[in-house]
């Protein structure tokens, strides 16, 4: 059918061109009418009809040029031509020809443009077939758009000509819209969706009228407000067609200026609640708010106008009415509207937190009575709603002032609550936000509770292990960012954090407790020896108070299988006592001994520190069974205890005795040997008036030698060789260390005997030599020679040792 139509158009166009070439007006009109008769078909789809129409349109442009030339030469009066074409046999060709001649008629200015246009738009009522009438009026709009009696136009007439131009475009628009809507109701019901798609392809034909209307110079704000917008809105509402209403409301928003929308908000918004329930109002209304917010962002000078017209109140009221009118609107639609309103508010009124909270409150009201959201699209919009204030203010503290913020979060499911909590933490990290009051932290931890404890009995077993670690590491980083220069307020912060993270369960505590512990220890270092009564709630921050909190916190780790971490934290706390006391000492004139006694008696810190070590030993005995973990823990205990000088003689003897006893009970002989000679450092420290017990140092080293010898014998029994001498070389280096420290019990004779012992063991070893042991021993001998060459007191001490 399309091919037949095109063939008919081409054939008649050929004869029409021949008539035009011979200036035969009668035949030109005859063949042009026959050509246009091809547009009377009802067999083509809109898409194919458009193709046929464009073929005819191109030919009609040539015919128009011929008419113009004829009237210019005077061969035919345009008035006579206007009357002549009305004698065409069929209505559709007659009206196409009439519009074509009407264009020439207006161009000739022999009659006012408004009269010709009025006549044409009325005559086009003769075609009521939706498809044919729509294209006919589209043709009329196309040939008249540059001939409207607009201000500054060559066709401008009297003062009312602007009204006539507007009336012509509006009337043509209204009639086209009626034809467009009528297409939906023609044909069988089963083809309704097909007709909807076909109509969607023709929507630009109708929308072009609004574009033409927006280009008329005479349409000022007053005319738009009093005449244009009410007429268009009335037509949009009355057509009661969801496709037409959606498209035309979108067109209004897109084609008319932003300042017009701002000044006519009430009229424009009043149409939205009257639209069909099936219209996607959220998209159109969101576009309007986005456009106006962009207008405010690019033109700050117009912001007072937004306040003057009460834009926020009108939008908020309109959204409420739309949601109320469309009772079946899905949750995602309502939330999307609130997201757009919040975006508009943050861009236009960023200083009005009450507006922001009002939007969140309206969203809570819409969601009230519902359980956790299960619609993923609605959930995504809620996340967007909650993220908008964070992105705008770059400060979570501002969001914490919004009373409805946590109420909105309550409607998220557990997984999305975690996502939102991570967004909040990432915002804090990105903007290095300092949250400095316990009240704000209480509110913050309420927002991120999905990360710090199980929600509604939900478990994290299904969560990917890497994702879980990343979540908990984010919480740990957050704890480190909490700070207040006021010691008492910082203590309140730590107590608030402790209250929340101890609810985290066994999987979370190993990640979050260390951060709390080290944050508390930083506060201890800042206090510099302050102390006082720890009873009551409103007490000053003191080291003792903080260490009691730390003891409770670390104790919570003991109920989960994490003894190594607990032990490390206990030892870290004990060591901070020493650092805190030393800091205090440097601010006073007391000697170390006197100060330590004073601190022990007045502050009663020694029993607390001793308790930390006791807990560490209990963990070592009862919880740590792995041999490698025992070695690591034992060396950590030795290193921490060696740096401690807070203990009295009795307590220190108890702790060192326990430590050396644990060292001698390790499973493997080499591990025993290394732990025992490491214990020698517990009996000799370089601090002023430190521990200097040379006898016990020598006792540890001799014991280490016996264990090393036993290890050699065991290797000889099991492997048939004496084994490596690496342990003897390590012990030799310890002897050299204490020899340089001046311990009288460590003499050059003892060192010389040990060197000879190592050489003897090497000679007796029938197996292949150990390269690392050889290099270690050679390096040790070179060190002895180097010390000899240095001269002075050190050189004299080493002089009698024969290294070569």
Automatic annotation (TrEMBL):
It is found in: Cytoplasm; Endosome membrane; Golgi apparatus, trans-Golgi network membrane; Prevacuolar compartment membrane. GO terms for cellular component: cytosol; endosome membrane; Golgi apparatus; late endosome; retromer, cargo-selective complex. It comes from the Eukaryota. Keywords: Cytoplasm, Endosome, Golgi apparatus, Membrane, Protein transport, Transport. It is a peripheral membrane protein. The keyword Acyltransferase does not apply. Its main location: cytoplasm. InterPro entries: ARM-type_fold, Vps35, Vps35_C. GO terms for biological process: intracellular protein transport; retrograde transport, endosome to Golgi. Plays a role in vesicular protein sorting. Belongs to the VPS35 family. This is Vacuolar protein sorting-associated protein 35. It comes from Aegilops tauschii subsp. strangulata (Goatgrass).
